[in-house]
Amino acid sequence: MSKMIYITDNKEADINYIKDSNTITVFKGLNLIEVHHPANATQSAVFLKLLNHFDIFILSRSRRALIEAQEIFQYTRLVYEPRRKITDIDKLARRIFSIRCFTICLPAECATQEMIRKFHVKGIKVIIRAQNQTDVYKAALAGADGVLGKDLKRVEIESDLTTLPFLVSHRGYQVDQVENSIKAGLKAHQHNADVLELDVHLTEDKKIVVNHDPTLGRTYDKDYVIKINKLAELKQARQKLNETILDDRIATLTEFDKELPEDLTFLVETKVEGNHAIKRLSRIVNSMKRNVMVMSFYPIALIRMDSYIKNNINGLLLASEEENMELLPIIKVVNKYKLIIHPQYSKFDYKWEQEIKRRMIGYSPWGIKEEDLEDALFEHHDMINSNFVHLLAHLPKKIVTKREIIYSLGDKKQLQVSNEKGKKLKFKTRILFDNPLELTIENGVITGAGKTGTTYLYVTHGATIFKKKIHYASDLIKVTVVDSEENNNGPN
After folding, report:
1. Is the domain of 74 the same as that of 212?
2. DSSP for 221-274?
3. Per residue in 323-359, pLDDT tens?
């Protein structure tokens, strides 16, 4: 099961929950502090800056407080807790990204797989505020990154995951299509990819085109150099697949956006880092209605992306483990520029990876080979970036069931479980808290209970990858048991 981070005030804590930001314990270990008034936020930020203590979370229900803290000390990790009910996730994402925040704290009633997945696809990390252990289960089953509350205890979920990591088709579907082509993107979407990774360059006449190499020779019949040729000249070259010359030409990023379904997220690697090039790229990205993330190996590109692409999360690409790579400078850069880490798969120390994940920083490895796909699925990454994600197209994204059920004593109640497309799935039930109502479930049917009241359960489903089986868990299910004669107008 994906490791949820516990933010609490006991020995169970991964991150210490500190209500009093004036205490010296703020500087001992990894901590989260709550600061809801702008004046207090200013005071805390000044103190943190004085001691250069940036490896800390500052949570507030006041966006103004977070802005004040960020303006004084840009390297702290901000967490926003909305005061109002969420009605527009896109609008909320823009509001928090604009202040370099990529973490949100939500009440337990928002802890559903559907809700959290909508935030995750944008690169936003989700913490659930829990009032009791039922809320902790709810957060864990929903796939929350963290859970926050007083004296929380860890829970165990009998599954490997809640929802499938986002599948990133690296340069598109390449089995029978040319990489970085519109057709490869369409085929990737048909094979259940959530995200299309593509590479962009700037032409001589300042157009953003999609290609991996700086020249066309490897995948086209003419070897033009992108940066010294105009788009019209590049369009003269035709794509080649093995020895076959096709009619397809190089496409601009705008053409990709026009031709591909809007529910396909774009993960754009910019191969250029110049100020003018990033500005051109930002105009296109900022005009798109789809979800877009931009990433780069170049530090200067990340700085410029932060200036021009404010309403999206961006990404830092890492090619291999550097001999002297330190954790804290990476955290500092991530906090300031709101970044996801995209490391080369299997090239980084496991302890380094775990410290990144402990801080709820997006972790999306690339370069995953076919033989590593199974292992990668069990490693709890946010995204799986590979040329071979089409081999995972048969796996459910999540399992779906009703989250509230009313059962009348003496009746029989069939539980319905499906994948996200409505296909019925086999499942097992797991009743929590030692089955206090003595609920009886046989072959997915509730057949009896020893008493009335409320109990909680979840269901699991096993799916075969290649050789291994991976187990999913559903959202938390609330079961209310009533006498058969009671008139019930609630959900059933």
Report:
1. no
2. SS--BGGGS-HHHHTTS-BEETTEEPS----BHHHHHHHS-TTSEEEEEES---
3. 567 889 999 999 999 999 999 998 888 899 999 999 9
- Looking at the fold, whether 454 and 316 belong to one and the same domain comes out as no
| CA gap 287, 280 in Å, rounded | 11
Q: What's the chain's length in residues?
A: 492
Is residue 271 exposed (0-12), middle (13-18) or buried (19+ Cβ within 10 Å)? Answer: buried
Report strand pairing: 103-107 vs 208-210.
Answer: unpaired
Which CATH number fits the domain that encloses residue 301?
Answer: 3.20.20.190
Q: Which domain holds residue 457?
A: 399-482
What does R_g of the chain's alpha carbons equal in angstroms?
A: 24
Q: How far apart are the first and last CA of the chain?
A: 29
Model confidence pTM above 0.85: yes
pLDDT in tens, 63-121: 999 999 999 999 999 999 999 999 999 999 999 999 999 999 999 999 999 999 999 99
Strand locations in 130-180 (E):
146-148, 166-170
Domain identity same for 122 and 209: no
Vertex 357: Cα angle to 352 and 359 (nearest 5): 105
